[in-house]
Design goal:
Layout lengths: L3 H14 L9 E7 L9 E8 L2 H13 L12 E7 L2 E6 L8 E6 L2 H15 L9 E7 L6
Antiparallel strand pairs: 1-2, 1-3, 4-5, 4-6
């Protein structure tokens, strides 16, 4: 079963992503999979610079489900949201049994970073909040890896 706090954050972020402005040829998406056990890790898939949001959504769900480093979590992949001309960020507490993980979709790099850090710190247990670190930030228009 998915952690209720994380699912609520995902739904909130997905709803907020719907209000981002639309621009052609710059679409992205983020999908995340978690379980109730932090030791199961986190599965994720992300995409940016796709021609359509539909294409980006398809890619991130496939990437998340194929994420081999978290085989239990990848069974629970959910689309967090898609965006046009926006950014996403992921933040984690590196301790393997910590629930500290967060993500965000926003119009700017700094807003995505801040949102992911705040969500990670909110989800982390007491005494672990300061260990949250940004793992990944991408914006439409960034070079593809």
């Amino acid at each position: 079963m998915i952690n209720r706090k994380m699912l609520l954050a995902a739904c909130t972020l997905a709803g907020a992503a719907a209000f981002l402005p639309m621009h052609a040829n710059a679409s992205g998406a983020l999908a995340v999979g978690v379980t109730d056990n932090p030791r199961d890790g986190i599965a994720y898939g992300f995409a940016w610079n796709y021609k359509t949001e539909a294409e980006a959504r398809e890619v991130v769900m496939r990437k998340c489900r194929e994420y081999t480093q978290a085989p239990k979590a990848n069974q629970n992949c959910r689309l967090i949201g898609s965006f046009s001309n926006g950014c996403f960020a992921l933040a984690f507490d590196p301790k393997s049994d910590s629930s500290g993980m967060g993500w965000a979709i926003a119009q700017t790099r700094s807003a995505a970073r801040d949102g992911a850090m705040a969500n990670c710190q909110d989800a982390a247990p007491p005494g672990r909040r300061e260990f949250c670190k940004i793992d990944n930030v991408r914006c439409d228009g960034d070079p593809n890896d």
